[in-house]
Design goal:
mainly beta; nine-stranded antiparallel β-sheet; Immunoglobulin-like; Leucine-rich repeat, LRR (right-handed beta-alpha superhelix); 3 helices; single chain; 28% strand
């Protein structure tokens, strides 16, 4: 009887043991399987290759209706497995620890979604953690992503409210949008409550990220080493608390991307390294306490609204490599008193300097061609404004509300001034217009400039301005402004052309231009007192309209274009003002170079004592002059290389300083 009882007890004990030591198993990859010990609550995954990508493993953790996800407390993944599959450990709410072998390369999307993990260390073989991988892991306090991580996916650490320590590698490249957002209980006061480390380091390999706002509430210092990233979204480092005390930019950074430091309202100084080449759109938009930033010489582009509302910025030196100032770049820089606009800037965009009332010195560059709408609206301290000669159009409201502007000079190539360009500029007392033909304006363009303002124009253009519907209402100066009387020769050289402009003399009978290259005469031209070439009439700027007064002896300027010059070459010239006997009255000498000339050249147009002959140090060799002169009214051309002139299709012959038809008749 005792024997039977003993046998029954042994069987009951074995049955009880089996109930407490149930082992579950299944397949979670093509060559990967899993085993769960119900007693130890350890899940072991073994095999080779990748886990399933379709969430099948998570579904298989149901055994005859029993939900095993809540049973798992620890996971051991053995060597050979190369990935953590999609939704693999999602909702494993009691999972506390996981052991990962070297060789795993990717943690797939939602792999630990809403799991109970408190910490995790990824092996250095992991290069990517996909979107929402740790979404809702509210107990996750620390995460070491390993030294190989390159990509952190979208919403990866969404609502990880306990996360206090996060480490990433020196080869990190991308961070997805919403990566660290925490909504907490849903109250707005809980937004952005991830208390990560106080210093945030972005490595040199970092190249792009979307917004990661509402995070890093304890971060005081951002170290930005990323060389050429591409930012996007509201602002990669934007957060609702604007808490960064210091921003350090690494020595090898080449690009400050779009929106990077937008709305950082505690930063007062930023030092950029010499390696920086471009500054993206809105890069420092809203940095309201930024007082100083240096712009390195290598910067060739500053994006739209880059310094929008940087209200504390006082001065800025833009490098000469900048060729365009985009719209709203310095909008609202209320404390900006001085800015250097580089000489090579050709375009100033719409609203570029709106609401910069402290600016007291705006010097527009000589290469400027276009001024955008409201570009300088609201500048209140400057009394003089000079529009450069290459400006073609001035857009609407460009210089409105300049309360202190008294003197306005408009360049010779301005053809259009849009409506309200000088709206509210009621202090203007004097206007000088260099354009031979009155620029197109509307009634509103000049409406606020007082009728009492003096208008000074080129002598030959007075009649046109006096008879103009809008320009004609100003008081016309009896003589041109002394500043309009040119005293030197100006040479504006391009790739194969050179424009000569020089002062006239009432006693001049003719003008002679000798252009030298390497000591030899390249081109030799003689012009009459009114700019005619050897008896062939040509139209020169400044002489397009008849003179108001036949007795007017005021000086004016003549212009002449020489074409057919060699590229990237240096030239010397001598311009002689001759009387009727060929005696020099004035002689000007100087040098110029065509585009691409590699040397350093100090151009000049200095007057010298008129003791002919005045030639460069190298003597003029014998031979036929070369070069081509194009008559500006288009009726003829002079080709010095073969001594031929074509006038209205007729071949003419050059002999000395005279031109003959092919029949021998002299042309006058």
């Amino acid at each position: 009887m005792k024997t039977k009882v003993s046998i029954i007890l042994v069987c009951l004990t074995m049955m009880a043991s089996n109930l407490h030591a149930t082992v579950y198993n299944g397949v979670c990859g093509e060559n990967v399987s899993w085993t769960l010990d119900s007693e130890t609550k350890v899940l072991t995954i073994s095999g080779t290759g990748e886990m399933y990508h379709d969430g099948h493993f998570s579904d298989s953790l149901h055994w005859h209706g029993q939900k095993l996800t809540t049973t798992i407390q620890s996971v051991v993944i053995e060597p050979g497995v190369t990935s953590i599959g999609y939704w693999a450990f999602a909702n494993c709410t009691n999972l506390k620890t996981i052991s990962l072998p070297d060789g795993i390369t990717v943690i797939e999307a939602n792999a630990f979604d809403k799991s109970g993990l408190t910490s995790i260390v990824l092996p250095n073989s992991v290069t990517e953690v996909q979107g929402s991988a740790f979404n809702g892991c509210k107990q996750l306090a620390s995460c070491d992503l390993g030294r190989g991580i390159k990509h952190i996916g979208k919403n990866c650490f969404w609502d990880c409210t306990a996360l206090k320590s996060l480490k990433w590698s020196d080869c990190l490249e991308t961070i997805g949008s919403g990566c660290f957002i925490s909504w907490g209980s849903g109250s707005s006061s809980d937004v952005g409550k991830i208390p990560l480390q106080d210093t945030l380091v972005f490595p040199a390999t970092f190249r792009s990220m979307d917004e990661i706002f509402s995070c890093y509430t304890n971060v005081k210092v951002v170290i930005w080493n990323a060389r050429r990233p591409q930012g996007s979204g509201m602002g990669p480092l934007y957060n609702y608390y604007h808490s960064y005390d210091e921003i350090i930019v690494g020595d090898e950074v080449e690009v400050i991307p779009t929106n990077l430091f937008r709305d950082q309202r505690k930063i007062d100084t930023i030092m950029l390294p010499e390696s920086v080449e471009s500054i993206g759109q809105n890069a420092f938009n809203g940095c309201t306490k930024l007082q100083y930033i240096n712009i390195p010489e290598n910067v060739h582009s500053i994006g739209k609204a880059a310094f929008y509302n940087c209200a504390a910025l006082t001065s800025l030196e833009l490098p000469e490599s900048i060729s365009e100032i985009y719209g709203s770049t310095f909008y609202g820089c209320k404390s900006l008193t001085r800015i250097h606009i580089p000489g090579g800037v050709t375009t100033i965009g719409e609203s570029a300097f709106v609401n910069c009332p402290a600016l007291d010195s705006i010097v527009l560059p000589s290469e400027l061609t276009m001024i955008g709408g409201s570009a300088f609206s609201g500048i209140g301290l400057q009394d003089t404004l000079v529009i450069p000669d290459k400006v073609v159009a001035i857009s609407s409201n460009a210089f409105e509300n300049w309360s202190s502007l008294e003197y306005l000079s408009i360049g010779k190539n301005v053809t259009l001034i849009a409506d309200n360009a000088f709206k509210g500029d009621s202090a203007i007392k004097k206007i000088t217009v260099w354009a031979a033909v009155p620029p197109m304006v509307s009634e509103g363009t000049l409406a606020d400039i007082p009728d009492s303002a003096w208008l000074s124009v080129l002598p030959d253009s007075r009649k046109l301005y006096r008879e103009h519907a809008y320009w004609g209402r100003f008081r016309m100066a009896d003589v041109p402004d002394s500043a309009m009387i040119q005293r030197t020769v100006i040479v504006d050289a391009a790739e194969t052309t050179a424009d000569f402009t020089w002062p006239t003399d009432s006693a001049a009978h003719s003008y002679q231009i000798d252009i030298y290259k390497d000591g030899a005469v390249f081109c030799k031209l003689t012009l009459g007192a009114r700019g005619q070439l050897l008896g062939i009439s040509f139209s020169a700027p400044g002489r397009r309209a008849p003179m108001d007064n036949a007795n007017d002896t005021q000086p004016y300027t003549l212009s002449f274009k020489v074409t057919g010059l060699d590229e990237a070459s240096r030239y010397n010239y001598v311009l002689s003002v001759l009387d009727a006997n060929g005696t020099p009255l004035h002689v000007y000498t100087g040098a110029f170079a065509t585009t691409g000339y590699p040397g350093v050249l100090i151009e000049g147009g200095d007057e010298v004592i008129p003791t002919p002959p005045v030639i460069p140090s190298n003597p003029e060799p014998s031979g036929t002059p070369t070069g081509t002169e194009e008559i500006s009214d288009g009726i003829g051309t002079f080709d010095g290389s073969n001594g031929k002139v074509f006038l209205n299709g007729q071949l003419l012959i050059l002999r000395g300083d005279k031109i003959y038809t092919i029949t021998g008749q002299e042309v006058r």
